Amino acid sequence: MKYISTRGRVAPIGFIDMFLMGLGEDGGLIVPETIPTVSQERLESWSGLSFQHLMFEIVSLYANGEIPDADLKKLIQDSYAGFTSPDVLPLTTLNDSLSVMELFHGPTFAFKDVALQLMGNLYAYVAKQRNEIINILGATSGDTGASAISSVRGKDGIRICILHPNGKVSRVQELQMTTVQDDNVLNLSVNGNFDDCQGIIKELFADLPFKSKYHLRAINSINFVRILAQSVYYFYAYLQLPKEKRANGVSFSIPTGNFGNIFSGMLAKKMGVPINQLLLATNENNILERFIREGVYKPEGFRMTHSPSMDIQVASNFERYLYYFLGEDAVEVSARMERFKSEGRLTFLPEEVARIQRDLSAYGVGNDECLQTIRSYKDEYGYLLDPHSACGIAAYERAGAPDAGTFVSLATAHPAKFDEAIRLLGIEQQFPERIQELFDKPQRQTVVDNAKVEIAKQLESFFV
Ligand SMILES: *Cc1c(COP(=O)(O)O)cnc(C)c1O
């Protein structure tokens, strides 16, 4: 299988080249030329497989044999060895129609580990096989940085630099990034906000001589491998459910910011998982909700919420949805993205809005509603949700179709990671040991001004 760009101006490339390219060189997002489908018989034959085995089967459909089976199996085994649950991603039943799939048992306690642990190992593998220098550069509002650092720390042939906004990530997120002592890790703590960090990264990646001189690679969710790895938990959740509960298909409630988590679900559905409703759960930064309900895609009015990992305005994976929505017409995608760039918004026709609503439904959760949901699920089920997972549950309560049958709500972070919000409810929690021990470790980070020149200088002395 080959990979192409949503804007049609990247010559078809293979799996590993696609992985290394990240964002398409024409500014579009990379997608497979055709999405492989899995028959119901084959899907059923996968029930009972471990998460790792299922990951192997699904990645194999996309990897073109570019990675020998034995190597791919080992990469996958290594990637999930650091997850503490024997099921890797355990499914907890709350009531007759609702289950929660916990995606946060990896080393940094957020669902980013599901894809980034694999990507880190894959980068190390490619560095060795192709003798490539891999220098990873990224900006984070907290979870992606911690997870990416954890996935490549101490690995040969790889260096990683992560920018985070000084003082604007949660305490645990900061410690997860800055207590890592390996020499191939550089944390730059920027006097500014997340958008400032992201802006500088974008400028550095757009500076093509700089990008190629320092072999810069990206880890954000524009990388298709991240989407692919995340699609596996939709298969896994479906197959973990008892047969009678999934006979009429399953619906998902999905905390989303960059459209990455939910697009992975759309990919699983296109591949053949019997999914009824895909419910997009977001917070007060509800650009995606307005897109689905009103047919207007327009970033505006940034708000601080209890779920900072979803405090996102421009959803980088939106373009992948648009590509399939427009019948894989790259010319039309390019035209619409040009319009978005010049006008700052995209407006869809009523006929189009009806079609969007057949694919997706949406609900934006208010700050108080988020906390109320944590409170009520703690009281009713003795189950402690983190604020992101609570958005998923609140969306299910408010907007889940009553006839949708079995629902799985995705839990994307461990509550200990967002204790600031949990404490507002007066709830005291016991931290897992791997989080507790962070508080005693020395931190390593360099505080820098929000200035491209200063940051570029830091990179020049760090990257080889
Ligand atoms: C990143 C993140 C999300 C949203 O994922 P997207 O890929 O942006 O859709 C949700 N919850 C948590 C805890 C996250 O870290």
Automatic annotation (TrEMBL):
<dbReference type="InterPro" id="IPR000634">
    <property type="entry name" value="Ser/Thr_deHydtase_PyrdxlP-BS"/>
</dbReference>
<dbReference type="InterPro" id="IPR037158">
    <property type="entry name" value="Thr_synth_N_sf"/>
</dbReference>
<protein>
    <recommendedName>
        <fullName>Threonine synthase</fullName>
        <ecNumber>4.2.3.1</ecNumber>
    </recommendedName>
</protein>
<keyword id="KW-0456">Lyase</keyword>
<dbReference type="InterPro" id="IPR036052">
    <property type="entry name" value="TrpB-like_PALP_sf"/>
</dbReference>
<dbReference type="InterPro" id="IPR029144">
    <property type="entry name" value="Thr_synth_N"/>
</dbReference>
<dbReference type="Pfam" id="PF00291">
    <property type="entry name" value="PALP"/>
</dbReference>
<feature type="domain" description="Threonine synthase N-terminal">
    <location>
        <begin position="2"/>
        <end position="80"/>
    </location>
</feature>
<keyword id="KW-0663">Pyridoxal phosphate</keyword>
<dbReference type="InterPro" id="IPR004450">
    <property type="entry name" value="Thr_synthase-like"/>
</dbReference>
<dbReference type="Pfam" id="PF24857">
    <property type="entry name" value="THR4_C"/>
</dbReference>
<feature type="domain" description="Tryptophan synthase beta chain-like PALP">
    <location>
        <begin position="101"/>
        <end position="334"/>
    </location>
</feature>
<dbReference type="Pfam" id="PF14821">
    <property type="entry name" value="Thr_synth_N"/>
</dbReference>
<comment type="function">
    <text>Catalyzes the gamma-elimination of phosphate from L-phosphohomoserine and the beta-addition of water to produce L-threonine.</text>
</comment>
<dbReference type="InterPro" id="IPR051166">
    <property type="entry name" value="Threonine_Synthase"/>
</dbReference>
<dbReference type="InterPro" id="IPR001926">
    <property type="entry name" value="TrpB-like_PALP"/>
</dbReference>
<comment type="pathway">
    <text>Amino-acid biosynthesis; L-threonine biosynthesis; L-threonine from L-aspartate: step 5/5.</text>
</comment>
<keyword id="KW-0028">Amino-acid biosynthesis</keyword>
<keyword id="KW-0791">Threonine biosynthesis</keyword>
<dbReference type="GO" id="GO:0004795">
    <property type="term" value="F:threonine synthase activity"/>
</dbReference>
<comment type="similarity">
    <text>Belongs to the threonine synthase family.</text>
</comment>
